Amino acid sequence: MFIVKIRASYSAAHRLCREDLSEEANYALYGKCSNPNGHGHNYDLEVAVAGEIDPATGMVINFCEIQQLVDSLIIDQVDHKNLNVDVAFMRGVIPTVENMARIFWDILTPRIRNGRLHHVTVGERNSNMVTYAGPSPARSKLADS
Amino acid sequence: MFIVKIRASYSAAHRLCREDLSEEANYALYGKCSNPNGHGHNYDLEVAVAGEIDPATGMVINFCEIQQLVDSLIIDQVDHKNLNVDVAFMRGVIPTVENMARIFWDILTPRIRNGRLHHVTVGERNSNMVTYAGPSPARSKLADS
Amino acid sequence: MFIVKIRASYSAAHRLCREDLSEEANYALYGKCSNPNGHGHNYDLEVAVAGEIDPATGMVINFCEIQQLVDSLIIDQVDHKNLNVDVAFMRGVIPTVENMARIFWDILTPRIRNGRLHHVTVGERNSNMVTYAGPSPARSKLADS
Amino acid sequence: MFIVKIRASYSAAHRLCREDLSEEANYALYGKCSNPNGHGHNYDLEVAVAGEIDPATGMVINFCEIQQLVDSLIIDQVDHKNLNVDVAFMRGVIPTVENMARIFWDILTPRIRNGRLHHVTVGERNSNMVTYAGPSPARSKLADS
Amino acid sequence: MFIVKIRASYSAAHRLCREDLSEEANYALYGKCSNPNGHGHNYDLEVAVAGEIDPATGMVINFCEIQQLVDSLIIDQVDHKNLNVDVAFMRGVIPTVENMARIFWDILTPRIRNGRLHHVTVGERNSNMVTYAGPSPARSKLADS
Amino acid sequence: MFIVKIRASYSAAHRLCREDLSEEANYALYGKCSNPNGHGHNYDLEVAVAGEIDPATGMVINFCEIQQLVDSLIIDQVDHKNLNVDVAFMRGVIPTVENMARIFWDILTPRIRNGRLHHVTVGERNSNMVTYAGPSPARSKLADS
Per the structure, how many domains does chain F have? Predict the structure, then answer.
């Protein structure tokens, strides 16, 4: 099995807070990430697609094809934006890297042909990253029923 | 001559805009960096001090001493903050990396002992950086007179 | 499933040698890493925790919580130390990256709440790394009986 | 289980094209990678070996042993070469990173003692990588019968 | 004084050789870089512009403006190309990083407004770089006379 | 003018201490770098040579030539060594990065042909570096007299 990986990055502002909590409770939960006026990051994104090689082309999936999907569906929406306010698919979602990875997965997974999405990694600093490998098949079936 | 360099980083939100301009004019001037709700970066900071080696210690200046100055005077003020709103020494200043480098220079230069500040570099992405080496001596003298 | 990863680093000296072997035999086994007076590295550490997202917070586990565990239980013990001499939990252990990964796992795994330790990676140079994913469940049960 | 990883790099020229296709069809398939006179990369290679720790040495496999295998069997053959023309084991193969990962796997896997090859990752830029984890066991058996 | 720096990269093939020399003499001069069928690199380019800050905008020169010049005048010409064959402004020039830095300087320097070109750095690996800071003013004057 | 830069690295142990001071006084001066049993780093070294381009070759100086000088004169002496004990040219010298940069300069500068040594940078972590650009001409003359 092959796993093809592309990387991209975006620069965005965010604030971690639950609207139902006081500023003090948000600070207790999210620390300095709850700063009321927000802060920001250069986010690193890795998108990995698993598949078999096509012997005729020597490729699983064209890098450019994944890159274009990621650019148009994700990077163009989140780069140089405020993730709490500006992004339609983040509305009502606390903009943690976990939630971003999960949402990016949901956006990308139906669009991948010639393979299947393997994982999405989002990092907000080189020292803080989350990898999401999709819902487990068992739970997916339950979710469908 | 020796140049001792330390590096630090901070994550902050900013928006580039001139209050006297319309949103369209700001976009023409600053592009996507003028997004009204802001965006953000992991900023990289390099502070360089020039000096002579002290033969007794083998050091120009203790790395920890510069690091502590930079942490307390700069990083603690800007990390996880909104640079347009939250930072006293950025008030009324358009938060470009040029202005940050200049202001950080002004904050640090009187505090450096055992050497003199050589340059300050601020980067907002690995591909976009500014180095400020201080006002030229000539202009400094003029400024003093 | 989500995998949350934090990274840290420490600077330490070590020497690879077996006390029961001659200097020549140690050199044959460990090469230049057996230098009798030691050498050192900036070690890179990645700690990964697997878990489910808490919909109320959007987090699996707070990055800061893992970071504090890693800092207090590991980094504070090994940073700027001699791993053959100074570190209680390394006593009597050949300080290879394999052994460090295994010991760090054993230290961290009972302390992780809201998830379970997924892997520990220790690198002594960017080109030399080891990932340890814990004892296999089967062997773990045997070890318990 | 431990996974020991070493990294190496090589600088090479390549051109992606199928000999049975016109220049236009190759451009449609491979984009700018089909440039008739070739282009090139600094390729990054990660080789990972899985195994158990030898308690007597604290190692799974000596880093130097893997490094030497990788250097002699791969790097010495591909570094500062044209992958379409100069490399015996790439002859007749479209030099995609997928094909390189697969061929490097086939070269290395019979040579690994004290463990088994876990994966091979080849990247042509930091943003474009492929990981190959070998043929699946089921298919391997079929292939043997 | 401020120095604004942008970075870009390009992937290209090249061969170092003097047409007037034998293959052996080229190997003696350029080593493995003289491989007759070429090799390649991911080249790193840094372009630095020196200037004064415009207090009205907080900028020396818009990063995007430099980036667009570099992309259109350089990257679009050399990326995914063979530097010995495909690039008009490299024709008849041995494609060393020294020559690239010098030629990129000559291309960019008349196009920089709001400042002057300070240096151009070209690296073919992270370990091999050349910085060119332009002809010295003295020699420039001589060259003009 | 061109500045050609090569980079190398070495892994070594060191301890910062003055033999004439108590352990407490050394800790006050050098902090955790005074740990009695030592610690270590992956040191990064940059060696820069300034010169004019040779139009016949397109090079200032062959990268390999500098690399070989640096490898044989420096890296082979300090890599996987204890800098306080094992290295002849460090004997009696407090192994700060300042002193290393100065000594490496003195070792390399008479060996550079086709140009002159421009600077030597030694870093013990990515965040802590020293650049040495040689004794000033004035002081050099005094030293000669």
Answer: 1
User: CA angle at residue F61 from F55 to F65, to 5 degrees?
Assistant: 145
CB F116, CB F50: distance < 8 Å: yes
Which residues of chain E make contact with D83, given a CB cutoff of 8 A?
none
D4, D63 contact by CB (below 8 A): yes
Cβ-based contacts of A58 with chain D (< 8 Å): 16, 93-96, 98-99
pLDDT of F120-139, one tens digit each?
999 999 999 999 999 965 44
- DSSP secondary structure code for residue F54 in this structure: B
Neighbours of chain F (3+ CB pairs under 8 A): B, C, E
Q: How far apart are the first and last CA of chain D?
A: 30
A23 among known catalytic residues: no
Shortest alpha-carbon distance between residue A23 and chain B (Å): 15
| Residue-level pLDDT, tens digit, chain A, 145 residues | 999 999 999 999 999 999 999 999 999 999 999 999 999 999 999 999 999 999 999 999 999 999 999 999 999 999 999 999 999 999 999 999 999 999 999 999 999 988 999 999 999 999 999 999 999 654 444 343 3
| Segments forming the whole domain that contains residue B10 | 2-144
User: Residue D94 and residue C75: Cα distance in Å, rounded?
Assistant: 46
The domain that contains E32 carries what CATH number?
A: 3.30.479.10
CA–CA dist B124, D127 (Å, integer): 20
Chain centroid to CA C106: 9
Phi (first) and psi of residue E31, to 5 degrees: 60, -145
Mean pLDDT of chain D: 93
Question: What pLDDT does residue D136 have?
Answer: 67
Q: Do A101 and C2 touch (CB under 8 A)?
A: yes
Question: Encoding tokens for residue E54?
Answer: 């415009």
Contact state of C29 with D60 under an 8 Å Cβ cutoff? no
| Element at A104 (helix H, strand E) | helix A97-108
Task: State how far the Cα of B89 lies from the Cα of B32, in Å rounded to an integer.
Answer: 25
Interface present between F and C (3 or more CB pairs within 8 Å):
yes
Task: Calculate mean pLDDT across residues F34-55.
Answer: 97
pTM value surpassing 0.90: yes
Q: Do C2 and A94 touch (CB under 8 A)?
A: no
Q: Respond yes or no: is residue E80 known to be catalytic.
A: yes
Nearest of E54, E59, E48, E58 to residue E108 by alpha carbon: E48
Catalytic: D124? yes
Closest Cβ opposite residue C63 in set A95, A128, A133: A128
